[in-house]
Design a protein that fits this description.
GO terms for molecular function: 16S rRNA pseudouridine(516) synthase activity; RNA binding. Keywords: Isomerase, RNA-binding. Belongs to the pseudouridine synthase RsuA family. It comes from Methylobacterium variabile. With about 250 residues, this protein is α+β, with helices and mostly antiparallel strands. The chain has three domains: about 60 residues, Structural Genomics Hypothetical 15.5 Kd Protein In mrcA-pckA Intergenic Region, Chain A; about 90 residues, Alpha-Beta Plaits (2-Layer Sandwich); about 80 residues, Alpha-Beta Plaits (2-Layer Sandwich). It is about 20% helix and about 25% strand. The strands form three sheets. Strands 7, 8, 9, 10, 11, 12, 13, 14 and 15 form a nine-stranded mixed β-sheet that branches. Strands 3-2-5-6 form a four-stranded antiparallel β-sheet. It has a two-stranded antiparallel ribbon with strand order 1-4. A hairpin with a 2-residue loop joins strand 2 and strand 3.
Length: about 250
């Protein structure tokens, strides 16, 4: 195959503009001022091409700081309560938890699925459209685990109802795929599902006569929310993290 094994390259001004550092003209001014440095040497020609190798962020600095991760970025974020997974809705947005420059990236970062405003926990974001669609594709059957707090005690048959594959949600014509319920206490449990229907967990418990008072997602595939990742914090995902999303331990 043509080009196999070769490292892609890109013009410096295009790379930095797509990462949100400014317009092409502003990047040219940064370069001429000696603010863009590769391996200790200022790059004063913004038109030159540089290789997009994995080690580039460790070798290139802009205004004295390491280069932001190039396209192909995937993040895990601990979504706090009260923020919305949207670019446009009113109120605090998950994108406001990221560096301002990252909101100008091209291709843009998008959430992999959504958590509603009153749900906390593990949220993935990426600028890699192919990866996003691999994760959300029904064929991948990527599981999601939620920790649930309920208004009323469980009645005892919820596990069998959820696992049956016959539960119908109000207003829908297709039953849910089987869902696993793990009971922790009278009003606390974990559910693991592979679909992502609108407000699915809340509607499931409403269908069996209960009400969810708190909802927290702590796992996607085999990737668990790190215990040291505080609400509002994010972390760049490595290849191993991405593999765990697809169930590879």
């Amino acid at each position: 195959m043509s080009g196999k094994g070769k490292t892609a390259s890109v013009r410096l001004d295009r790379l930095l503009a797509n990462l949100g550092y400014g317009s092409r003209r502003e990047i040219q001014m940064l370069a001429r001022a000696g603010a863009v440095v590769l391996d200790g040497t200022p790059l004063r020609d913004a038109d030159q091409r540089i290789a997009l190798d994995p080690g580039l962020p460790a070798r290139l600095t802009v205004s004295g700081k390491p280069l932001d991760p190039p396209p192909g970025l995937a993040l895990m974020l601990h979504k706090p309560l009260g923020v919305t997974c949207s670019h446009k809705e009113a109120g605090p947005l998950v994108y406001g938890l990221l560096p301002p420059r990252w909101r100008r990236r091209e291709p843009p970062l998008s959430t992999v699925g959504r958590l509603d405003k009153e749900t906390s926990g593990l949220l993935l974001l990426t600028d890699d459209g192919a990866l996003l669609h691999r994760i959300i594709s029904p064929k991948a059957s990527v599981s999601k685990r939620y920790q649930v707090t309920l208004d009323r005690p469980l009645r005892g048959d919820e596990g069998a109802v959820f696992a049956s594959g016959t539960l119908m949600l109000e207003g829908e014509e297709k039953p849910l795929l089987p869902v696993t319920l793990e009971v922790h206490g009278p009003t606390s449990a974990a559910v693991t599902l592979t679909e992502g229907r609108y407000h699915q967990v809340r509607r499931m418990f409403a269908a069996v006569g209960n009400h969810v008072t708190a909802l927290h997602r702590d796992r996607v595939g085999a990737l668990e929310l790190p215990a040291d990742l505080e609400p509002g914090q994010y972390r760049v995902m490595g290849e191993g993290d991405v593999a765990r999303v697809f169930g590879v331990e």
